[in-house]
Amino acid sequence: MHTFIWGTATAAYQIEGAADEDGRGPSIWDTFSHEPGRVRDGHTGDVACDHYHRWPQDVALLAELGVDAYRFSIAWPRVLPEGTGAVNPKGLDFYERLVDALLEAGIAPVPTLYHWDLPQALEDRGGWLNRDTAGYFADYVAVVAERLSDRVSRWITLNEPFVHMVQGYALGVHAPGRALMLDALPVAHHQLLGHGLAVRALRAAGAPEVWIANNCSPARPASPSSEADRAAAEAYATLHNWLFNDPLFLGTYPDLPSGLSPGSSSGEPSFGVTLGCVRDGDLDVIATPIDGLGVNYYNPTLLAAPCPDDVLPFDIVPLTGYPTTAFGWPVVPDGLRELLVALKERYGAALPPVYVTENGCSQPDVPGQDGVVDDQARIAFLDGHIAALDRARAEGVDVRGYFVWSLLDNFEWAEGYHQRFGLVHVDFATQRRTPKASFHWFRERIST
Ligand code: IFM
After folding, report:
1. Which of 275, 300, 327, 414 could be stapled to 335 by a disulfide with Cβ–Cβ 3.0 to 4.6 Å?
2. Ligand 1 center–CA 329 separation, angstroms
3. What is the value of pTM for the model shown?
4. Widest Cα–Cα separation across the chain
C-alpha cells in the first residue's frame, strides 16, 4: 500500500517576485507582462507574492497546513540567466535554502523544472519552435540536479506543455505572445523532446522519481447522439490530451484528425509525419520511462461539430448547468473521475501512478470585517473533487496524490492578480497572508 501524498502547488513567476535580483535574467513573462495590453490592468510578476524574500513565512504556512509535499517551480532564468552557459550560483542557493527548509519542516519538495518562464535569451533564438531549446533545457536540468538531487527525490519536468503551446505560441494570449495557430505544433514536439532529455539527465544524477504535469480535460460531445459532435470531441481530445500523453506511454504520436495539420486544412494521418520536425530516435527519448503522471484538472470541455468556415475541426461551446468559478469555469467534480478512468482505459499497464498535481478554483475572496475569508465555494469545490478522485481509485486507477492549486493567491498570468486561487489570501499591497476557511478545512481533511 502506497502512502497518499497531500500537497499544494505554486510556480516561480506567479509567486517569487524579485525579478531583477541576485543575477536573475529576464524571462518571456517579464517581457510579455511589461508590454502594454498583454496582462489585465498592466499587472506584472515583478513583486508577485514576494516569496523570494518571504519564503520562510510560506514554509511555516505549509507546515501549519500539514501537507506531505510542496510542488513549486524552479525559474530557469534564475539559474541560467541567459538560458545556457554561465550558471548563477545565487539562483541555485535560493532553491537550496528553500529545499532545506522544507525538509527540515518534514515536507517533501517536488520541484517543477519548467513552468512557462523561458529565459528571454532563448526566446530570441526561436524559443520552443527551435529544436535546440530541448537540449538547452536538459543542460539546465543537469545543473539543478547536480546541486539538489541528494535532497530531492521527486522531480517534475514540464508543467502543462499543451497550455504553453496553445496560449503562448498558437493564440498569443500568454508569453511569448505568438499567434501561430497550427504552425505552433512543433512546440509540442520540442517540449516533449526536452522532457525526455531531462528525464535522462535526472536519471544520470540519480533521481529516483520523475513525473511530468500534463493539463488534461475530458472532451464531451455537445450532443452525444451526433456523430459529428463525437468526432469533434475526439479531435479535441487528440490535441489536448493524447498528443501530450501517447508519446510518453505508447511511444507514438496519435493520428491527427483532418484539419489539425500545420500549414494545411486538409489534414494528414500522422502527427509525426505531418510535422516534419520529428527525427529518428526522438520518440524513444520521449518515451523514456517515468514514475508518475501529474494530471492538472480544472474542467471538462464541451465540443460541437465545426461550422463550415472554422479552421479547426471542432467548436468549443459553453458547458452550462454547473456552478462556475470567478474565472467562469464550470465546476464539474466528476470530470476528474471521468478523466482518470479514461487515462487508465487508454494506457492500461503503461500508465504509471497518477498524481493530481493541480486542482483548485478562483473565487472572489474578500476578507470580512473580522478579517476572515470564508471561502465556502472553494471548500465545496475541493471536497467534491477529492470525492471524485476516491471514486476513480475505487474504479482501479492508481492515484497516489493530490495537490491543491494553489498555496497562495498569486499572479494568474494574463489575468494578473484578479483571479485568486489560494488557500491563503494575499493582500498584494501589504503582502499580508491570511489563511482562508479552506486552509483550515484542508488541514482537517488531510489530518484524517
Ligand atoms: O495558475 C495556473 C497554473 O500556472 C497552471 N495551471 C492552471 C492554473 C490556473 O489557471
Report:
1. 300
2. 13
3. 0.97
4. 63
Looking at 243-375, list the stretches that DSSP marks H as alpha helix, in order from N- to C-terminal side: 243-249, 271-275, 282-286, 334-347
CA 266, 216, 288: angle at the middle one, nearest 5?
A: 90
Output the nine-digit C-alpha cell for 106. 518534514
Return the amino acid letter for 444. E
Q: Is the beta carbon of 217 within 6 A of some atom in ligand 1?
A: no
Q: Of all protein residues, whose CA lies closest to atom 1 belonging to ligand 1?
A: 412
Fold (topology level) of 5-447: TIM Barrel (3.20.20)
Q: 358 Cβ partners below 8 Å, 6+ apart? A: 9, 213, 215, 294, 296, 297, 298, 403, 405
User: Ligand 1 pocket, 297 CB below 6 A?
Assistant: no
Domain ranges of the chain: 5-447
Of how many residues is the chain composed? 448
For residue 198, report the phi and psi dihedrals to the nearest 5 degrees: -70, -40
CB 262 within 8 A of CB 275: yes
160 counts as catalytic: yes
Closest approach atom of ligand 1 to CA 11: 4
- How confident is the model over 114-153, as pLDDT tens digits? 999 999 999 999 999 999 999 999 999 999 999 999 999 9
Cβ-in-10-Å burial (0-12, 13-18, 19+) of 398 comes to middle
Out of 16, 123, 338, 358, pick the active-site residue: 358
Q: Calculate how far, in angstroms, residue 29's C-alpha sits from the geometric centre of ligand 1.
A: 14
Instruction: Sort strands 301-304 and 315-317 into parallel, antiparallel or unpaired.
Output: antiparallel
For the stretch 350-394, pLDDT in tens is 999 999 999 999 999 999 999 999 999 999 999 999 999 999 999
Distance from residue 165's CA to the centre of ligand 1 (Å)? 14
